[in-house]
């Protein structure tokens, strides 16, 4: 019971004196007297932000759920995921509210896109339009990655041809090592020294063993270039990814009500990662 003025005064006292009361006792009193505002103050003071969100879920108040996530989400980002699961479980998904939740889940990268799709697809009333923006954004990020990779592909192909020429020369021609100075310290060579088959600026790479440290199995000057050569093996995969988007949209347009399944299939096969 209690008047509205008395409850307002109680809220002021609780808010102004955090930690000065027996929280468990006060919480029991709030529940006995149906005083949820008091319980919410206690939850917030104790850092029980999930309980705040859960309260509004119980009240079927999606707007307040989102407002609480907005307020406490920086301290507990997973509140957004809790809200998404709850909204997807409702008979009627609140379109406007779930749109903001999806935006935060995406920006905070809380879960992979496939999981978001699986969560929403469990609701028979979920329409493809609900997730269109989310999927489009995920594809745009992937396209930006593909564009960046395409520039690398061209570079890799050019370097591959050059390396093939060098490999063929190593197979068919002898090589005389005439370097007199260490490629690292530039001091005159003495034994023990290590010669690599690569070269820099037309000079073979050769080092004092002491200058190599733990890198005696790989040239420290050309190691990064060697790693790029290894990466070239995946360049064909990068080319193939650029065709995935067109195939995806063709299949999505022909899905006839199976849009969620089509999206889940593509994300599940890792075609957008």
Automatic annotation (TrEMBL):
Q: Which PROSITE patterns match?
A: CHCR
Residues in domain Vacuolar protein sorting protein 11 C-terminal? 232-272
Q: How does it sit in the membrane?
A: Peripheral membrane protein
The cellular location(s) given in this protein's UniProt record come to: Endomembrane system
Q: Which UniProt keywords apply?
A: Membrane, Metal-binding, Zinc, Zinc-finger
Q: Give yes or no: UniProt keyword Zinc.
A: yes
Its GO biological process annotations read: endosome organization; intracellular protein transport; organelle fusion; vacuole organization; vesicle docking involved in exocytosis
One cellular component term from this protein's GO annotations in UniProt: HOPS complex
**GO molecular function annotation:** protein-macromolecule adaptor activity; zinc ion binding
Query: Keyword Metal-binding: yes or no?
Result: yes
A Pfam family recorded for this sequence: TPR_PEP5_VPS11
Q: Where are the CHCR repeats?
A: 1-96
Q: Which PANTHER family does the entry mention?
A: VACUOLAR PROTEIN SORTING-ASSOCIATED PROTEIN, VACUOLAR PROTEIN SORTING-ASSOCIATED PROTEIN 11 HOMOLOG
Name recorded for this polypeptide = Vacuolar protein sorting protein 11 C-terminal domain-containing protein
What organism does this protein naturally occur in? Hemiselmis andersenii
Q: What is the lineage of its organism?
A: Eukaryota, Cryptophyceae, Cryptomonadales, Hemiselmidaceae, Hemiselmis
């Amino acid at each position: 019971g209690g008047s509205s003025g008395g409850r307002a005064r109680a809220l002021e006292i609780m808010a102004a004196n955090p930690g000065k009361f027996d929280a468990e006792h006060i919480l029991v009193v709030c529940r006995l007297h149906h005083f949820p505002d008091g319980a919410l103050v206690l939850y917030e003071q104790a850092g029980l932000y999930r309980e705040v969100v859960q309260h509004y879920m119980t009240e079927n108040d999606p707007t307040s759920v989102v407002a609480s996530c907005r307020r406490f989400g920086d301290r507990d980002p997973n509140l957004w995921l809790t809200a998404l699961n709850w909204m997807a479980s409702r008979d009627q998904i609140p379109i406007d509210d779930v749109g903001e939740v999806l935006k935060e889940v995406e920006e905070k990268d809380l879960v992979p896109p496939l999981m978001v799709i699986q969560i929403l697809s469990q609701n028979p009333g979920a329409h493809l339009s609900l997730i269109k923006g989310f999927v489009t954004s995920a594809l745009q990020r992937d396209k930006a990655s593909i564009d960046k990779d395409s520039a690398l592909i061209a570079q890799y192909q050019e370097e591959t041809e050059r390396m093939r020429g060098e490999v063929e020369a190593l197979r068919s021609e002898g090589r005389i090592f005439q370097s007199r100075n260490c490629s690292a310290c530039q001091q005159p060579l003495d034994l023990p020294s290590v010669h690599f088959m690569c070269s820099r600026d037309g000079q073979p790479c050769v080092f004092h063993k002491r200058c190599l440290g733990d890198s005696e199995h790989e040239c420290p000057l050309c190691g990064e270039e060697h790693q790029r050569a290894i990466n070239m093996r995946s360049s064909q995969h990068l080319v193939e990814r650029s065709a995935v988007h067109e195939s995806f949209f063709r299949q999505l347009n022909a899905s006839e009500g199976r849009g969620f399944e089509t999206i889940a299939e593509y994300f599940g096969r890792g075609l957008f990662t």
